Amino acid sequence: MQKNLKDLLTWENINGEKLDESDYAFIADLERSYANAGDYEMSYHLLLFRSIQQINQNGGYPVAKKILSLIDEEPVGSHLVLV
Question: Which pTM value belongs to this model?
């Protein structure tokens, strides 16, 4: 199954507490991938989202909106999808 960060970071998933441990593991993998590629801003925001959302099960949507805006600025073929 292929996961996509944009599909995970929706209002319904975040506020409906529909994200599970495999989703958080996917986000952690992306976080490391962005850090290894030198994109520390995206890596930081993914870490921030995960630390807020995974612990509290809510409150991560403002950070998710920032991540989505950063995704829209990225060139095609970036680290958005892991198989």
Answer: 0.81
